[in-house]
Design brief:
Structural class of chain B: alpha+beta
Strand order of the largest sheet of chain A: 3-4-5-6
Largest interface: A-B, 76 and 89 residues
Number of strands of chain A: 8
Helix content of chain A: 10-25%
Number of helices of chain B: 7
Strand content of chain A: 35-45%
Largest sheet of chain A: 4 strands, antiparallel
Shape of chain A: globular
Order of helices and strands of chain A: EEEEHHHEEEE
Distance between the termini of chain B: 43 Å
Radius of gyration of chain B: 18 Å
Distance between the termini of chain A: 18 Å
Number of helices of chain A: 3
Oligomer: heterodimer
């Protein structure tokens, strides 16, 4: 699965996700990537794209949940993502991760697996590329 | 206003001990190419939607990632791709599921967002919509990669005896990540 979240000069956030699904899937199974609120979500405050075991991401409405925490609580986007990925999702048994941005351009990355291919360019133009924990 | 971009290429059992330096550099270079493609659009005043599509298309066209060209195989040896996109300014969203001939599903998802009153289209219907909106279609062979095919064969071989797998076999990332959907 791949994904991207961007904040443009007009303050608009877009989140996108694309995937080949899971190896050996049957029955027309569909995971979270095309499900708005599970694998992808964007509001004026927050945008998130996810990658992981889709069934759990759907049940936890992961990307919507992160944006809801940002909107309705004092959590910043990193705290919100960590709460969902490392607490809620772990309790369900789901593994994977998320990336995201808030309206100020703060970058969020959170995952509960050994690694996640990821990269960012922040509001100061700093480029970061990481693979492992 | 600030501009910023963040991308991912999938999460999972990714360990340094299983990666050659050359492969790691290949991944890093492709991630950077994706980032730069999106960021250049943002720097030139382009929209976040265009930036997200540009960044994702680079990764969809690479065999390194499980999307587009590098997609994994289903039980029946086919490729079925999903994608979605959502924009904050009007909460518009588009998604496609189970498409098999769309070269870049993220572009089709965005067409669903902008050119239809719907949010999600699936399988043959989504591909019919792609044809009507001139989204590039490809033969299924385009998605074939040897690595993903071998992953499927390994999983198919191990699936019936899953309960009898040794501890080492069960930890194999191909088996662990198959999830037997």
């Amino acid at each position: 699965t791949v994904g991207a979240v961007a904040l443009d000069v007009n303050g608009n956030i877009t989140a996108g996700t694309s995937t080949g699904g899971m190896t050996n899937k049957r029955y027309g199974r569909i995971g979270d990537s095309p499900v708005i609120g599970a694998g992808t979500y964007a509001t004026p405050l927050c945008g998130v794209s996810a990658t992981g075991h889709g069934e759990y991401f759907i049940r936890a409405a992961v990307t919507h949940d992160i944006c809801a925490l940002v909107e309705y609580t004092d959590s910043n986007i990193q705290q919100a993502a960590d709460t969902v990925i490392h607490e809620k999702l772990v309790k369900l048994g789901g593994d994977g991760g998320v990336i995201g941005l808030d309206k100020e351009g703060n970058i969020m990355m959170s995952f509960n697996t050994e690694g996640m291919y990821r990269g960012s360019i922040d509001k100061d133009g700093k480029v970061t590329i990481k693979i492992y924990k | 206003s600030s501009i910023a971009l963040v991308i991912h290429g999938g999460a999972g059992t990714i360990l340094k001990k299983n990666m050659t330096d050359e492969l790691e550099q290949t991944y890093r270079a492709k991630l950077e190419e994706s980032l730069m493609a999106g960021y250049q659009i943002l720097e030139n005043g382009g929209s976040s939607t265009e930036a997200v599509k540009a960044a994702i298309v680079i990764m969809e066209n690479s065999p390194l990632f499980n999307a587009g060209k590098g997609s994994v195989f289903t039980h029946d040896g086919k490729n079925e791709l999903d994608a979605s996109i959502m924009a904050s300014h009007d909460l518009s969203a588009g998604a496609v599921a189970g498409v098999s001939h769309v070269k870049n599903p993220i572009l089709l998802a965005d067409k669903v967002r902008t050119e239809s009153k719907h949010v999600m289209m699936a399988r043959e219907g989504a591909e019919e919509f792609a044809k009507e909106h001139n989204v590039e279609l490809v033969d299924q062979k385009y998605f074939y990669t040897q690595r993903r095919w071998e992953q499927l064969q390994k999983v198919l071989k191990s699936t019936p005896q899953k309960s009898q797998l040794s501890e080492d076999e069960a930890k194999n990332s191909d088996v662990k990540n198959s999830k037997f959907g």
